[in-house]
């Protein structure tokens, strides 16, 4: 032979089927790594844009700064998008549970909050005592305005922490603009109005004329120390520093208090890389399987080469050169397919949804924004190409070593391995086709394991990705602030229990939960309105007793047992929400699981500590100790039995108005009550995630396609390399029907075994991926639908991949089948 290259090239040309199957496997794995490289950036930026829309394009906000502090902050290097906001005051919108905050924004801060400053009619205020309100807030206030109308507002302003009483005032404003409604504010009960520059100076006394300053940090290295240093320079207290936790968590930045408010998005890059490794392993197993079968079939040829003087390392080089030639063809094709696929998925994602959700004016602008932020992803593409090349060589390595170590004598004799048979007990064979299929699997355990592993990897990736896709939704962090589809609230006299029966009478109501709520100050406790043995760490902390129903209790404490539920109902157990530490100078009260406390002569044991705040819609959570007990226990502790909030969950959203009329009537029948619909809030949150979901599904479907191709690839190779065996079976009398049954059973075994193991592995991996994103291991519900989908798909594809080559082989003559040389 003249060169290894020429011999390897002849081998590649001669084995057309093997060459084609290996090229497909390498091409698809390269395409996958390319899609991952591009999708990491695109998906991450979609999540970042979603975080912007939910909570502003800012990293940190410093509150209650004077003019000198503001100028000092503006002079700092490494900060950008510095926006100054002055709060004019707040007002509660009657019978709505919504508070409106009126803020005077400069141009920079308006850009930081485009989701609450989109103008529907008119313009943003430009002069003092001009104002712009969103359309739905005007409706809640009972105002049908025109631009230029005068609006009278009663506002109240106070400092974040201080002894000064609130400053209440009334003033008239000129309506300069009507804003697009921001229903996301309903989730926490706060909407925003914009006042013109100079309004705060005109209407507020100097001691209330403070500003909040939003900013972004250019360099994330040592982020927390930079914030601490700036806060120290400005003499700020902890309560004056607010982190945009939704945005920072999405960026994966470490900051103070992150463990308390992690939204689970920080691990997206690591998870995508992990998924890519699984896909590469699946493709690598296919390459290994095909090459190993190919080498075993040509064992005589390698024996002859050894006999005429070829050294082991020369055979080794032939295999390596073959895989290099195949990679030279497959990898460029895979890169092209991957880039086109990633662009197609992104185009679909950015064209289907309203771009305003992501702060863009058009789909084209959104697409440009995403790809502008995703620049520099040529490195992952090159890395993906290199990784595919390395994986392909690693997959070929065992076959190359096997070929290099072959003994010329054994190879030329045609005996490549020693066959050992175990003595087994005779037993009745019920189904001969199934029995032969099982024997075929056991006969070559190595080939069987590799085939199952190839399918296993594909199913694992599908189940894991499908189960984890919901974690990409940044709006999950906001959804925790609301409960149900409708809420009826009354924090004064409460709502009669008959309202529950009335709601349950309607078929479209899926379930109803409720909250009973009583709050006591430490002064009220000292005056004897309530007795408790708790020692408060901070004089500003309140003490709340909250009664909930069984369903809500299970949501707060999912691991509750039947015995524990009985103890909650009998008044032995409670759940505690500890207060937040708002000052480094004063300790906060901190109860632990197992602690005992006494309320009005009743002793309770703390069964669990929750991080979820339970509050009445529109009132916000007041810092203090929350003692959460069962419904009837609340009645006994407080002497009250009325409901303070009812949350209604509906079945059919097409019949929303029917339930709404019932909720509205109940609210009117209970004086002092208000109701709120979250349907528009849900719509905005769904839209904010829709594009990310489309992109994630495109990613999942692409992975599924690769998995399907790998299944076909492996199964086809497995059957095609056994043409001689099939010909022999036909020669001794096996008809085509029996032959089909044997191989269909074999394909079914492959699919079923891979489906079971892959589904379990996929579920376990989805748990670990969620823990990587959230920082804690939670055993979520078993993803039944993804598991069934992946299992059915794998078995179906195995059967189809079995039928196609068998149909071709059965048309060959028996003599041709036995004598064929692949």
From TrEMBL:
The keyword Cell membrane applies. Signal peptide: none annotated. The chain crosses the membrane at residues 20-37, 271-291, 315-342, 381-404, 448-465, 694-712, 747-772, 784-804. One of its GO terms (cellular component) is plasma membrane. Keywords: Cell membrane, Membrane, Transmembrane, Transmembrane helix. Belongs to the ABC-4 integral membrane protein family. This is FtsX-like permease family protein. It comes from Alkaliphilus serpentinus.
């Amino acid at each position: 032979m003249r060169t290894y290259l020429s011999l390897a090239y002849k081998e590649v040309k001669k084995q057309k089927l093997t060459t084609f199957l290996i090229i497909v496997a390498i091409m698809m794995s390269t395409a996958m790594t390319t899609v991952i490289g591009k999708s990491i950036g695109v998906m991450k930026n979609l999540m970042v844009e979603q975080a912007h829309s939910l909570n502003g394009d800012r990293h940190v906000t410093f509150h209650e700064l004077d003019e000198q502090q503001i100028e000092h902050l503006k002079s700092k290097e490494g900060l950008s998008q510095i926006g100054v906001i002055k709060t004019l005051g707040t007002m509660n919108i009657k019978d709505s549970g919504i508070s409106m905050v009126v803020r005077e924004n400069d141009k920079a801060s308006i850009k930081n909050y485009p989701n609450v400053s989109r103008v529907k009619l008119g313009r943003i205020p430009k002069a003092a005592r001009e104002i712009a309100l969103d359309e739905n807030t005007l409706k809640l206030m009972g105002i049908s305005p025109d631009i230029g109308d005068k609006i009278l507002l009663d506002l109240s302003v106070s400092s974040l922490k201080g002894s000064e009483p609130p400053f209440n005032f009334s003033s008239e404003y000129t309506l300069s603009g009507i804003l697009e409604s921001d229903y996301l504010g309903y989730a926490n009960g706060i909407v925003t109005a914009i006042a013109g520059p100079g309004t705060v100076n005109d209407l507020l006394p100097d001691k209330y004329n403070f500003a909040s300053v939003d900013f972004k940090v250019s360099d994330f290295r040592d982020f927390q120390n930079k914030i601490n240093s700036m806060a120290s320079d400005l003499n700020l207290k902890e309560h004056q520093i607010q982190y945009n936790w939704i945005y920072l968590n999405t960026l994966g930045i470490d900051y103070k208090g992150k463990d308390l408010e992690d939204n689970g998005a920080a691990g997206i890059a690591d998870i995508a890389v992990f998924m890519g490794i699984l896909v590469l392993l699946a493709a690598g197993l296919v390459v290994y399987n095909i090459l190993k079968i190919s080498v075993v079939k040509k064992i005589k040829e390698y024996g002859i080469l050894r006999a005429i003087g070829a050294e082991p390392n020369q055979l080794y080089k032939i295999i390596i050169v073959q895989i290099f030639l195949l990679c030279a063809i497959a990898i460029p094709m895979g890169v092209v397919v991957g880039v086109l696929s990633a662009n197609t998925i992104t185009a679909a994602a950015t064209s289907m949804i309203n771009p305003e959700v992501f702060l863009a004016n058009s789909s084209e602008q959104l697409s440009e924004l995403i790809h502008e932020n995703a620049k520099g992803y040529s490195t992952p593409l090159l890395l993906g190409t290199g990784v595919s090349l390395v994986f392909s060589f690693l997959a070929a390595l065992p076959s190359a070593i096997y070929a290099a170590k072959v003994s010329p004598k054994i190879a030329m004799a045609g005996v490549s391995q020693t066959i050992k048979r175990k003595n087994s007990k005779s037993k009745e064979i019920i189904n001969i086709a199934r029995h032969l299929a099982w024997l075929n699997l056991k006969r070559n355990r190595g080939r069987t394991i590799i085939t199952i592993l190839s399918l296993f990897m594909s199913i694992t990736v599908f189940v894991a990705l499908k189960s984890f896709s919901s974690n990409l939704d940044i709006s999950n962090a906001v959804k925790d602030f609301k409960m149900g589809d409708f809420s009826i609230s009354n924090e004064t006299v409460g709502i009669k229990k008959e309202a529950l029966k009335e709601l349950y009478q309607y078929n479209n109501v899926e379930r109803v939960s409720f909250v009973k709520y009583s709050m006591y100050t430490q002064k009220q406790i000292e005056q004897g309105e309530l007795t408790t043995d708790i020692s408060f760490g901070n004089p500003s902390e309140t003490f709340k007793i909250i009664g909930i129903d069984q369903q809500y209790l299970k949501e707060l404490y999912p691991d509750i047992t039947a015995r524990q539920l009985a103890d909650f109902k009998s008044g032995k157990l409670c759940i505690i929400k500890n207060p937040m530490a708002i000052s480094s100078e004063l300790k906060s009260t901190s109860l632990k699981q197992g602690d005992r406390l006494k309320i009005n002569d009743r002793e309770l044991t703390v069964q669990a500590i929750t991080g979820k705040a339970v509050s009445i819609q529109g009132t916000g959570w007041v810092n203090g100790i929350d003692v959460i007990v069962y419904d009837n226990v609340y009645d006994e502790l407080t002497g009250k039995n009325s409901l303070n909030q009812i949350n209604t969950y509906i079945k059919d959203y097409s019949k929303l108005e029917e339930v709404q009329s019932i909720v509205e009537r109940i609210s009117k029948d209970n004086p002092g009550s208000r109701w709120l619909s979250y349907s528009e809030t849900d719509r905005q949150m769904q839209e904010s995630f829709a594009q990310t979901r489309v992109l994630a599904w495109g990613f999942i479907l692409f992975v599924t396609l690769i998995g399907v191709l790998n299944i076909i690839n492996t199964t086809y190779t497995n059957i095609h390399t056994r043409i001689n065996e099939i010909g022999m079976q036909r020669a001794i009398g096996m008809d085509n029907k029996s032959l089909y049954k044997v191989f269909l059973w074999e394909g079914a075994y492959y699919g079923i075994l891979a489906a079971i193991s892959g589904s379990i592995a996929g579920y376990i991996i989805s748990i670990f991926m969620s823990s990587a994103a959230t920082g804690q291991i939670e055993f979520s519900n078993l993803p039944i639908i993804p598991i069934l989908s992946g299992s059915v798909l794998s078995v179906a594809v195995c059967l189809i991949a079995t039928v196609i080559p068998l149909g071709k082989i059965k048309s060959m003559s028996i003599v041709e089948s036995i004598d064929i040389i692949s």
